[in-house]
Amino acid sequence: MGSVRNGRGSERMVKVLLPDYEHPPAWIPPNERRGHPDYDTDIRLFLPRVVRFKRNKYNDQLGFNIRGGKEHRCGIYVSKVYQDSNAERVGIQVGDKLLSVNGMDFEDLRHDDAVRILKSSHEIEMSIRYFPYGFEKTFERSPISPGTATNGGFIFG
After folding, report:
1. pLDDT tens figures, 82-121
2. Can you give the pLDDT at residue 51?
3. 89-104 burial, b for 16+ CB within 10 Å, e for fewer?
4. CB of 131 within 8 A of CB of 45?
5. DSSP 3-state assignment of 68?
6. pLDDT of residue 150
7. 87 vs 81, 111, 156, CA distance in Å?
8. Radius of gyration of the chain (CA)
């Protein structure tokens, strides 16, 4: 369980779902598993964390793209992080799920609402957690209605 603040400053508990553990193949020695992108068993990598950064101007890039949203039956995920950006400097990575931004819950948000909130923010505090399993699922999701976009969309290029 983790906690997320809502817009009024109170916190609520959120269930943290992790995929079933998949043991690494025997040919990867235990001493080489730490830091391995597929077989690192350090659970702390998947716990929620808070990152903070500022933009000099409202039209400055945030340094990352997002995909997903309520209309795609999934959360909002980081799909790309630009080199030498504020996002990269604070440790945002592809596969991070946005749980909240500036205290606003992102768990059940449409993609366009997420874009609007992120673009309108000068100082950003994001609660995120690395969840590559959920991110991979964004490529399997289809929109709820036929008139919506067929992918999660990208922003902040």
Report:
1. 999 999 999 999 999 999 999 999 999 999 999 999 998 8
2. 96
3. ebebeebbbbbbbbeb
4. no
5. strand
6. 38
7. 7, 19, 11
8. 16
- Please answer whether residues 16 and 133 qualify as being in contact, where contact means their C-beta atoms are separated by less than 8 angstroms: no
Residue given tokens 């948000």 in the structure block: 109
pLDDT, tens digit, for every residue of 50-59?
999 988 877 7
Q: Name the residue with tokens 């992080």.
A: 81
Place of tokens 């950003």: 124
Cα→Cα distances 65→20, 51, 100, 107, Å: 28, 16, 16, 17
3-class secondary-structure state, position 135: helix
Please give the model's pTM, rounded to 2 decimal places.
0.68
The total of other beta-carbon atoms located within 10 Å of residue 84's CB is 8
Q: Say if residues 125 and 86 touch (Cβ distance below 8 Å).
A: no
- What does the angle CA 101 – CA 46 – CA 117 come to, to the nearest 5 degrees? 15
Interior angle at CA 22, CA 19 and CA 26, nearest 5: 165
